[in-house]
Specification:
The structure holds two protein chains of two kinds. Chain A is an all-alpha fold. Chain A contains nine helices and no strands. In chain A, helix 4 runs antiparallel to helix 6, helix 4 packs antiparallel against helix 9 and helix 8 runs antiparallel to helix 9. Classes of the chains: A mainly alpha, B alpha/beta. The structure holds adenosine-5'-diphosphate and magnesium ion.
Chain lengths: 257, 246
């Protein structure tokens, strides 16, 4: 009886529902007839929506992180380590997480609102009636697009934030671009890039799944659509942090540090 | 013999949402070429009924036979094939608002025509369907640019594009002004003549019912409460039936 009551709680119910939704994704993704056109559309749309914001934020993060780290390093007489230290944190942590959070905000809410309004205006039912599998057409394409695009955006963010870091170093110091790149790349290894890319794949997948789940199962009425969009952002952001925590542990255990 | 068989036969259909028993042993049959009206209060389960027929909603029990096939026996693929023969006009129209009128009309063809067929005939099918509803000039417009009556027509054109044998209309004139409502009713009649379709029409618009319906079923308390022509039902003394014709 105790267990039954626990399972009845909305949180566990939600987790169960999202798991079932994810399982359905894996069933449908392998079925024949992929919707390539819609997938390309979605990739383009995600890039278009998030590119500007991701670029600006990445640039500022690189710049600010460098400027703020300098005094501490100078105090320890380690100013020469600035490029290496900053680039490691930008590559490993800041660029992927910032990109994922921006995508959770823009892409997660966008998908949640779009599918939510299609649900309440019966457009999803209309697809079903016309013989097109709406899960395949709407959900599978969007989840795959997010899974592909978030790593790409994150890689871009890494590049831009490193450039921001270079400018930050150069405000006071006189480090040439070549020297900066040399120092940064010296500090970085595959062990930094690979886990960073891999975790953004999971971030993208989580953002896509949560946005689609919230929208696809939206409740009737306009406030239902609004709620889908906001909870998609909240749940996706939370998931990004949880996945990040797991990723750190996994990387640690595998000794990739 | 073949033509005597009803093309839709619903028997003892039950559907509840939790404690809310919407349909209780509901029964109806639709014959070839017939326009059957379902009349009932708001929230009485009319939409649930026709959504069960097209299997957007899974009933709890009962039998639904459409064009000779028991729909609970069909797998997804067979159901999709059957759906090509059954047009569904949503009360909200359900036009894809991110697509143009042309893309809206082409959408159902994706599943049912091959790529070659689409390349060859989609354009003319779209134009034909738009002309059937008198809106040829809207082909490149977005749904948001259209008036309520036009959207209803486009939605109807989209259901017509696969040339269904049966059309299910969910409150086709609700929310339209009386003149537009009459135009839509006229259109429903002309389509039935042109393509020889049968239809289930959900409506409480007495003008529309008078113009389009051959027979009326009153859906009250989840049951097929009374059945007959408009004139027969208007003579019915049952207070629950009388309510509708006052
Ligand atoms: N998906 C659903 N979940 C729960 N209840 C529903 C659902 N769809 C319809 N209902 C309920 O079923 C009843 C009949 O709804 P409906 O068929 O839409 O009425 P109407 O006759 O106005 O078309 C209503 O009480 C509605 O709340
Ligand atoms: Mg209804």
């Amino acid at each position: 009886m105790g267990l039954e009551r626990k399972i009845d709680q909305p949180f566990f119910k939600e987790v169960g529902e999202i798991s079932r939704f994810t399982a359905r994704f894996f069933r449908e993704v392998t079925k024949p007839k992929q919707e390539w056109d819609e997938f390309i559309n979605q990739c383009y749309w995600i890039g278009y929506k998030a590119l500007t914001l991701v670029s600006i934020t990445a640039f500022i993060m690189g710049l600010v992180l460098t400027i703020q780290s300098r005094p501490t390093l100078v105090e320890f007489g380690a100013a020469a380590l600035l490029p290496s230290m900053v680039s490691v944190s930008l590559v490993r942590e800041i660029s992927p997480v910032i990109t994922a959070l921006i995508c959770a905000g823009k892409i997660g809410s966008g998908i949640g609102a779009e599918l939510g309004s299609m649900r309440v205006t019966e457009q999803i039912d209309a697809m079903e009636v016309s013989g097109t599998n709406p899960f395949k057409y709407l959900v599978v394409t969007r989840v795959l697009a997010a899974t592909v695009m978030v790593p790409i955006l994150s890689s871009l963010a890494i590049g831009i934030s490193l450039y921001g870091g270079y400018l930050g170093t150069n405000i006071r110091g006189e480090v040439s671009w070549t020297l900066y790149v040399y120092q940064a790349y010296d500090a970085l290894s595959y062990g930094d890039f690979l886990p960073s890319i891999i975790k953004t794949i999971f971030f993208g997948f989580a953002i896509g799944i949560v946005g689609c789940y919230k929208g696809y199962t939206s409740q009737k009425g306009t406030e239902g659509v609004g709620r889908s969009a906001t909870t998609a952002v909240i749940v996706a952001s939370l998931l990004v942090f949880i996945l990040d925590l797991i990723a750190v542990q996994v990387v640690d255990i595998l000794g990739l540090t | 013999m073949e033509s005597e068989d009803p093309i839709i036969q619903v028997s003892n259909l039950n559907k509840s949402f939790g404690e809310n028993h919407v349909l209780r042993d509901f029964t109806l049959s639709l014959s070839k070429g017939e326009n059957l009206v379902i009349l009932g209060k708001s929230g009485s389960g009319k939409s649930v009924l026709i959504k069960c027929i097209i299997r957007l909603i899974e009933p709890d029990s009962g039998e639904i036979i459409v064009l000779g096939q028991d729909i609970s026996d069909l797998d997804q693929d067979e159901m999709d094939q059957l759906r090509a023969n059954v047009g569904f006009l949503f009360q909200s129209n359900a036009l894809y608002d991110s697509m143009t009128v042309r893309q809206n009309l082409e959408f159902p063809l994706r599943r049912h025509w091959t790529k070659e067929e689409r390349a060859e005939k989609a354009e003319s099918a779209v134009i034909q369907a738009l002309e059937d509803v008198g809106l040829g000039h809207t082909i490149d417009m977005m749904p948001i640019e259209l008036s309520g009556g036009m959207r209803k027509r486009i939605a109807l054109a989209r259901t017509l594009i696969l040339r269904p044998k049966i059309i299910l209309y969910d409150e086709p004139t609700t929310g339209l002004d009386p003149i537009t409502a009459r135009e839509i009713s006229d259109l429903m009649n002309s389509i039935q003549k042109k393509y020889n379709t049968a239809a289930i029409i959900i409506s409480h618009d007495l003008n529309c019912i008078r113009m389009t319906g051959n027979r009326i079923i009153m859906l009250i308390e989840g049951r097929n409460y009374a059945e007959g022509t408009m004139d027969e039902l208007m003579k019915n003394e049952d207070p629950k039936v009388k309510d509708f014709f006052e």
